[in-house]
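Q: Please design a sequence for this.
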């Protein structure tokens, strides 16, 4: 079988993959599979993006980027080729889909019950139109509460700078995947009236400060706030937007599909293994609040004697100068190859601290992300890979160091970094 025809409309990914899978079976002399899709244009809500996501695992690059670049990130030995007309139709469909158009989302809200037979909630809306939270908040200017108000289905939002800040923060809040941090945020919101800032433990203070920087990107003092809990009070004052934040936190918690756990750094640090964090969230969790001053991918936190290594696996000349195109990649589930800054020599104080960190009673922690920006052009969050120990090195200015991680690297990062270095 080298040709299949799609004649049955379906929104089920399972059925779609079963249909396609019959044609993907190997056979002697079979070089490719030709797919003729006769149902893609039958329904204006047909979700092309979801189908290609299931085939390519496009991740931070995004389905549109994969289609435009010719599916360069499919597994080695595989390829997807689209006729030019089909490619144009699919891109037009994705760009005009409910999840990619403010006007289409408004239309979807106005006719939601009629179209789906379900009560209109954030969770039901996402499910019905096969969206995730980052798709909904990708422009950082709109919220579900704002959509409801614009469609005449909800309370109007105040036109204030504060509302705009919390609306923009929804995109970052939607990416929280630490159960411990989510539980703290929910508990603090629930008990805010009886809490006092001075009663917070150091761990709780750091978690509150992470939310402060998520919304305002500066300290509460720089904002003129009386204490670290003011960000929670201002969030609750947002009315429907606050209720949306609570819904988002509940959805965040429900989608976590890995075991997150604290990492022992010798103090109560809120960063959990394999969770995603922004640069600001990482630094303030380590009690370093001058986040704007950090320009490189390394930071020595003297207070806790920790070297923080922040790495982008797939660097491009557009985003990085030749002197910063460091080679960072995983070798296997425990070993990670990392290059220091070009100014760091093996016999410098910094180089010696890297090599002899155990003897000098310092620690190294590692954060990585696949691309600098995500599918919507925003800074992608980093995954916390935990503590690293010196294994070996070669060269100088820069040093090429192999770190041994205390915990195994997640399988998806092994695959992504291995693929990039094999090209």
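A: Design:
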């Amino acid at each position: 079988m080298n040709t299949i025809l799609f004649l049955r409309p379906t929104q089920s990914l399972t059925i779609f993959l079963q249909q396609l899978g019959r044609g993907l079976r190997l056979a002697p002399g079979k070089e490719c599979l030709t797919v003729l899709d006769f149902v893609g244009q039958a329904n204006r809500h047909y979700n092309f993006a979801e189908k290609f996501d299931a085939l390519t695992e496009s991740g931070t690059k995004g389905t549109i980027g994969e289609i435009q670049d010719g599916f360069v990130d499919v597994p080695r030995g595989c390829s997807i080729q689209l006729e030019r007309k089909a490619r144009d139709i699919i891109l037009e469909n994705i760009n005009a889909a409910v999840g990619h158009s403010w006007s289409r989302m408004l239309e979807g809200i106005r006719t939601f019950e009629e179209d789906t037979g379900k009560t209109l909630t954030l969770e039901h809306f996402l499910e019905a139109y096969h969206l995730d939270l980052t798709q909904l908040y990708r422009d950082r200017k709109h919220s579900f509460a704002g959509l409801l108000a614009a469609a005449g289905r909800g309370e109007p939002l105040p036109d204030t700078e504060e509302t705009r800040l919390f609306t923009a923060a929804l995109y970052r809040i939607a990416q929280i995947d630490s159960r411990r941090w989510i539980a703290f945020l929910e508990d603090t919101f629930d008990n805010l009236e009886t809490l006092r800032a001075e009663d917070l433990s150091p761990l709780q203070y750091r978690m509150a400060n992470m939310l402060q920087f998520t919304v305002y990107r500066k300290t509460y003092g720089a904002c003129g706030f009386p204490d670290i809990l003011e960000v929670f009070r201002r969030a609750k004052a947002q009315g429907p937007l606050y209720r949306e934040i609570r819904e988002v936190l509940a959805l965040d918690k429900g989608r976590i599909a890995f075991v997150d756990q604290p990492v022992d750094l010798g103090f109560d640090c809120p960063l959990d293994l394999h969770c995603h964090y922004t640069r600001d969230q990482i630094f303030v969790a380590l009690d370093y609040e001058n986040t704007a001053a950090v320009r490189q991918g390394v930071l020595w936190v003297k207070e806790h004697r920790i070297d923080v290594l922040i790495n982008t696996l797939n660097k491009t000349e557009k985003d990085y100068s030749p002197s910063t195109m460091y080679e960072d990649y995983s070798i296997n589930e425990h070993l990670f190859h990392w290059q220091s800054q070009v100014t760091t020599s093996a016999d410098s104080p910094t180089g010696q601290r890297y090599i002899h960190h155990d003897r000098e009673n310092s620690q190294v922690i590692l954060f990585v992300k696949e691309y600098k920006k995500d599918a919507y052009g925003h800074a992608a969050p980093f995954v916390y890979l935990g503590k690293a120990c010196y294994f070996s090195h070669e060269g100088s200015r820069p040093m090429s160091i192999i770190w041994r991680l205390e915990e195994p690297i997640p399988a998806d990062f092994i695959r992504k970094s291995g693929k990039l270095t094999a090209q």
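Q: Thanks. Anything notable?
A: The radius of gyration is 24 Å. The CA atoms of residues 2 and 31 lie 8 Å apart.
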